[in-house]
Write a structure and sequence with these properties.
EC 3.2.1.141; Immunoglobulin-like; alpha/beta; 581 residues; Malto-oligosyltrehalose trehalohydrolase
Length: 581
């Protein structure tokens, strides 16, 4: 078997495979690369030593059976026999469901999560979005401090378990999206800097030195990241990738890394003849991110739209701290602006940032499905001091209003696991660092962060306490009890309508027409022949729809069809979906 590794500064590289050590030779055709042959098979343990130093795992390791610090293992992807005959599911018309493997079930494994995929197929979502799977220290964590970007966290089940999960999802008609982190590497178990200039001090990120995308040696670093992305899509038949915090990918080169990545993914999609897509998390509000390369953009297929979330959250809860301050002055106006224009900040002044932010999105060129809309995400729940969900902040009627707006908006909807039944469990920040100093630093840093916002240290959960993770696991008995069962039925009804009514997946952002009353707390919008009305106030509201004939398709509380005068009477804290006839 051929082994190879990029180590441009090394004077000598040796391979240790199944206890046998042999020297590698320089590759005469690729500067900085070393290569050599060794007897190996699926499961063989190996690693590389530079200049007679300690044996380290392969930067391109496909498996880390003993965690980030252990030896790598050979993975023969051809051994797995795929069951599903899968042609893929494209992003237009999709509904995503964000899932954290470690807390979706109490067992916290991919196999246990796969057993619950039938629930998602019945719910009506189209894609499962897995939070990061790369190896990280310990057993439980969010996954954003992973290393070995080509491997699967062993406590989740490793490579074979991910293939079984994807196969099961595809057999149920569900696509699979994977969250990947290219903007930084985990602080523990990360040996990439030993091998080459994977990091640069030319730029800095909130997590330290930046990934090297534009300094000397960056060609190979970019190829490393692109190769990892393509491996998930090719070897595991993943359908799309969510790219974490792309605003932290600092790249001054004319050919931006994200453009390089989107070009490679589109080429792979053509090769395998199934749709593949990239969804960015971005704080930039820059439409060039999701504009095609032919039109001068970077060619990503979609992005998270935090503006919609912030406007909706502020409308529902009245919270005004931090970035919610920009939306708190007139939350329904902010919500209306995102429903019709995509971004709230499109060159406007942001009091939170103390500067102008964003640029306008051209609704005639950017389809609505390129923006993801959501009322909750792992970030927006887990980065609260106590990880309290929206269900802990507002009553079921307002949760129904949130679902109505999210699932009928002109965006690609995304749900956060458990949201569909108003889960009563929190989702808190938890880690399992094996380095005591790092564990203590994370614990103290978390408490300092929230102490600055008025929280008592003892009220902030200890990330290293196993109970913090345990509290965050979903309670699968809840969907059978009230009020959870009623909320779940509402989500199912709305998702069924989204799939049945073509106007609800119409990509034309400019076709959405909105009316609202900030004081009386109602908002209504129209998409083709579908009308949506949401009353957030506790009192009933009479809304003049301006159409002579409309039929109620779904309502959280009982609602009569509007009369000949076109007036719809909406109970307090309720949402209604109608069809003009």
């Amino acid at each position: 078997m051929q082994f190879e590794v990029w180590a441009p500064q090394a004077g000598r590289v040796t391979l240790r495979c199944d206890g046998v050590t042999r020297a590698l030779e320089r590759d005469p055709e690729r500067a900085g690369w070393w290569r050599g042959e060794a007897d190996a098979r699926d499961g063989s343990r190996y690693g590389f030593a530079l200049d007679d130093g300690p044996v380290r795992p392969d930067p391109r390791s496909r498996r880390q059976p003993d965690g980030p610090d252990g030896l790598s293992a050979v993975v023969d992807h051809e051994r797995y026999e795929w069951r599903a005959q899968w042609r893929g599911r494209p992003l237009p018309g999709a509904v995503l469901y964000e899932l954290h493997v470690g807390t979706y079930t109490r067992e916290g494994t991919l196999d246990a999560a796969a057993e619950r995929l039938g629930h998602l197929a019945e719910l009506g979502v189209t894609h499962v979005q897995l939070m990061p799977l790369c190896p990280f220290p310990g057993t439980h964590g969010w996954g954003y401090e992973g290393v070995s970007l080509w491997a699967v966290h062993e406590p989740y089940g490793g490579p074979e378990a991910l293939k079984r999960f994807v196969d099961q999802a595809h057999e149920l008609g569900l696509g699979v999206v994977l969250d990947v982190v290219h903007n930084h590497f985990g602080p523990s178990g990360n040996y990439l800097p030993v091998f080459g200039p994977y990091l640069t001090d030319r730029h800095h990120t909130p997590w330290g030195a930046a990934v090297n995308l534009d300094a000397p040696g960056s060609d190979e670093v970019r190829a490393f990241l692109v190769g990892s992305a393509l491996a998930w899509l090719r070897d595991y038949r993943i359908d799309g990738l969510r790219l974490d915090a792309v605003h932290a990918l600092v790249d001054t080169r004319a050919f931006h890394f994200l453009e390089e990545l989107s070009t490679a993914v589109d080429a792979l999609a053509a090769e395998v003849d199934r749709p593949l897509f990239l969804v960015a998390e971005s704080d930039l509000n820059d439409p060039r991110l999701i504009t095609s390369r032919d039109e001068g953009g970077l060619g990503l297929h979609a992005q998270w739209n935090d503006d919609f979330h912030h406007a909706l959250h502020t409308t529902l809860t009245g919270e005004s701290q931090g970035y919610y301050a920009d939306f708190a002055r007139a939350p329904l106006a902010g919500l209306a602006k995102t429903l019709t224009g995509g971004y709230f900040h499109d060159g406007t002044y942001s009091s939170f940032r103390e500067r102008h932010h964003g640029r306008p999105l051209d609704r005639t060129r950017v389809a609505g499905h390129r923006l993801l809309g959501y009322s909750q995400t792992h970030d927006q729940v887990g980065n609260r001091a106590q990880g309290d969900r929206l269900s802990a902040l507002v009553p079921p009627g307002l949760l129904a209003c949130a679902a109505t707006l999210t699932l009928t908006a002109p965006f690609t909807p995304m749900l956060f696991m458990g949201e569909e039944w108003a889960a009563g469990t929190p989702w808190q920040f938890f880690t399992d660092h094996t380095d005591p100093e790092l564990a203590d630093a994370v614990r103290r840093g978390r408490r300092r962060e929230f102490a600055a916002h008025g929280w008592k240290e003892e009220d902030v959960p200890d990330p290293q306490d196993p109970a913090t993770r345990d509290r965050s696991c979903l309670d699968w008995s809840e969907p059978e009890r009230q009020p959870h069962a009623r909320v779940l039925a509402w989500y199912r009804q709305l998702l069924a309508l989204r799939h049945e009514q073509p106007d609800l997946t119409d990509p034309d952002l400019a076709d959405t027409k909105v009316a609202f009353d900030e004081e009386r707390r109602w908002i209504a919008f129209r998409r083709g022949d579908v009308l949506v009305a949401v009353n957030l106030a506790p009192e009933p509201a009479a809304l003049s729809l301006g159409v002579p004939h409309a039929r109620v398709l779904a309502a959280w509380e009982p609602v009569e069809d509007p009369g000949a005068d076109g007036v719809l009477h909406v109970p307090g804290e309720s949402g209604v979906v109608l069809l003009q006839e």
